[in-house]
């Protein structure tokens, strides 16, 4: 039985990866300190092949994991919390995430030196392309576009250079997965996020999909739906199950050794289009009227990837369309907030 360690196993994307690997016969060791959501229950928690260590990855060396031999370490652990975090925690996103990365890679390198690890898989972010003007954006554009302006985007780019450095100095093989706008169930509110309101309307600042769903569920059909910015911002919404499947396929493939992959739906959708889609699912034929609010500084206008590399090298394409994904997310938001 193959064994994988998932850092940040109880997080949004991490939990999807754990479910995917367990369903495919892996033994999974999770490491998480519940710093983002607090103590949360995940579907994989009680699986017989899952072991959770409630621990801060920064202090990974104090864990007694010497008897484990991992095929893969999947590095998901990070301080992350949506666009509000980009502004509220500009320094911490650099400092804390650098400590997480250094601790993770120090540990992974030691495992590799003792033949206890085959490869590290790094979960990066589409924000490494924050300053690109090339669309759809291919993987190699990270070498050509200006560096990200946000500290979060810059740090995610740094995570990819951790992979490069660990391979060049120690020979540690890597695969970089760069998800674009993950959607799915389980994206709750961060414990240290500020509560933001517009008038009597509460806004969720974790990600745009839960925010639009929550507002659509809690305002009157006759009210305007507040959105940040013009609504013309372009995103590619990608289900967590697709991202998890891509991680498994890539980490098992020799074609993905020391390579990076954009993982995303190939469908561009504007925020305005998404808002209208969600509104119609909740309010039917009632006209969706938008109210445009001042955007955040780091609200990137276009994030649109080229996904041909994943398709051509690994034979993988994301299967779940946003319309198929939204009903389960709407239902989850209803239950989570007791609406």
Automatic annotation (TrEMBL):
Protein name as it appears in the record: NAD-dependent epimerase/dehydratase domain-containing protein
Organism for this UniProt entry: marine sediment metagenome
Pfam families with a match to the protein in the record: Epimerase
InterPro entries according to UniProt: Epimerase_deHydtase, Lipid_A_modif_metabolic_enz, NAD(P)-bd_dom_sf
Record domain NAD-dependent epimerase/dehydratase: where: 5-263
Top-level taxonomy: unclassified sequences, metagenomes, ecological metagenomes
């Amino acid at each position: 039985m193959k064994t994988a360690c998932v850092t940040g196993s109880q997080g949004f994307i991490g939990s999807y990866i754990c479910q995917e690997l367990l369903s495919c016969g892996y033994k999974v060791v999770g490491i998480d300190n519940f710093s983002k959501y607090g103590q949360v229950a995940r579907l994989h928690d009680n699986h017989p092949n899952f072991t959770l260590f409630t621990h801060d990855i920064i202090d990974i060396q104090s864990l007694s994991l010497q008897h484990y031999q991992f095929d893969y370490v999947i590095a998901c652990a990070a301080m992350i919390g949506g666009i509000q975090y980009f502004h509220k925690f500009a320094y911490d996103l650099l400092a804390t995430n650098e400590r997480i990365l250094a601790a993770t890679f120090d540990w992974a390198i030691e495992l590799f030196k003792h033949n206890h690890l085959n490869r590290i898989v790094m979960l990066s972010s589409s924000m490494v392309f924050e300053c690109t003007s090339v669309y759809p954006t291919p993987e190699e554009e990270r070498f050509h576009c200006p560096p990200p302006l946000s500290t979060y985007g810059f740090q995610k780019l740094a995570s990819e250079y951790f992979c490069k450095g660990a391979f060049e100095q120690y020979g540690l093989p890597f695969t970089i997965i760069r998800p674009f706008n993950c959607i799915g169930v389980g994206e709750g509110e961060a414990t240290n996020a500020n509560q933001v309101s517009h008038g009597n309307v509460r806004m969720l600042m974790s990600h745009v999909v839960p925010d639009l769903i929550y507002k659509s569920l809690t305002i009157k059909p006759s009210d305007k739906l507040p959105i940040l910015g013009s609504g013309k911002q372009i995103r590619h919404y990608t289900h967590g199950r697709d991202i998890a499947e891509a991680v498994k396929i890539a980490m098992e493939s020799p074609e993905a050794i020391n390579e990076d992959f954009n993982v995303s739906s190939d469908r561009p959708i504007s925020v305005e289009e998404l808002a209208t889609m969600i509104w119609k699912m909740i309010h039917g034929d009632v006209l969706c009227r938008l109210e445009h609010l001042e955007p955040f500084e780091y609200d990137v206008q276009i994030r649109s990837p080229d996904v041909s590399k994943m398709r051509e090298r690994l034979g993988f394409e994301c299967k779940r369309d946003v319309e198929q994904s939204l009903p389960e997310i709407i239902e989850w938001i209803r239950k989570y907030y007791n609406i």
